[in-house]
Amino acid sequence: MMKSFKVMLVPNKHQRTRLFQFAGTARFAYNWALQKEIDAYEVGEKFISGYDLTKKFTVLKNSGEYPWLKSISSQATFQAVRDCADAYIKFFKKQSLRPRFKSKRRGDFSFYQAADKIKITTTHVKLEAIATSKRKNRQRLNWFRLAEHGRIPVGVKYFNPRITFDGLNWWLSVAIEFAEPKPAENCGEALGIDLGVKNLATCSDGTTYSNINRTKTVRRLKKKLRRIQRSISRKYEMNKSKGGSYQKTRNIIKSERKLLRIHHRLADIRQNYRHQITSAIIGRKPNPIVLEDLNVRGMMSNRHLAKAVQEQGFYEFRRQIEYKATWKGLRVVIADRFYPSSKTCIACGHVKKNLHLSERIYHCENCGNVIDRDLQAAINLKRYVS
Ligand SMILES: [Zn+2]
Questions:
Q1: How far is the CA of 45 from the centre of ligand 1 (A)?
Q2: What spacing in Å lies between the alpha carbon of 176 and ligand 1's midpoint?
Q3: What is the pLDDT of residue 301?
Q4: pTM value?
């Protein structure tokens, strides 16, 4: 079983510059490979394998046409070329869309490191060929401080190390293999979890977890976000040239950075909160855990709900529950999409034909049972397995 770890890097100025160079070169290699595939396809040749592409890339590198290619570790470029070939194979198997060119504007900044060369300590990571000089005091440039100490296990085998930039910070991610967990012992009874907008999660045991997006901190940040967004569009309007094209000024760039920071802050708050809840739920060792098969797309088509649903991150919640349960050897069951978890009365089993979203309290027309709608849904989900 693979577990992946992601930790932020704290690069100094020189290191930061090199990271951008690496990512830029990896992007160049990927796009070069993609163009080669497209060219081959257009003249009716067959798909070029990753192996052949890397050979061609070596020829390009040694041709001296792009001298800067040599200042970057060859692993970073080779893997980018192989990634492109892999993306094509996935596309042929209809597992993904046609690969497209990576772009700086869209924020495609990432590169690979050789798994056997990367060194990780509790506080630092050593990347390959960041230093351009072999001198000992320069070699220190290869060592990057990690923002979180001791999070990545040390002295084990690492898989697929990647360095990525999210628009603000650089991150290291690696995967590590762990033994399959044994089925959990001493676990509790089944637990149904209903996900919603009013509360993020309502559990069949009566615990509820509120919607973080309704807290003061998040509301204040969202307000700030809107204010900056408005000021940016005003600035664009003001600086519009006579020809009608929009110009970026220093002030706009500054504001856009501010905007990005708030976006990240919000995403962090939400993600943190989801992790807290999913860990708390898994910590109680319920077995199995029953979730509903979310029709997120259906919910998103309701324009009054779309934003709120998106902010809750149901898929991410489910992903966390699923992988954390796997670690603990707990089972997760996804109830059928048409299982009427909200519409069934838990007291008499009567199924209400029409249940409006605004009916937060369920009144049973058959037996007179009155219960919170979400709690009832959670209890019904729990009953799905028994
Ligand atoms: Zn009833």
A1: 67
A2: 50
A3: 73
A4: 0.79
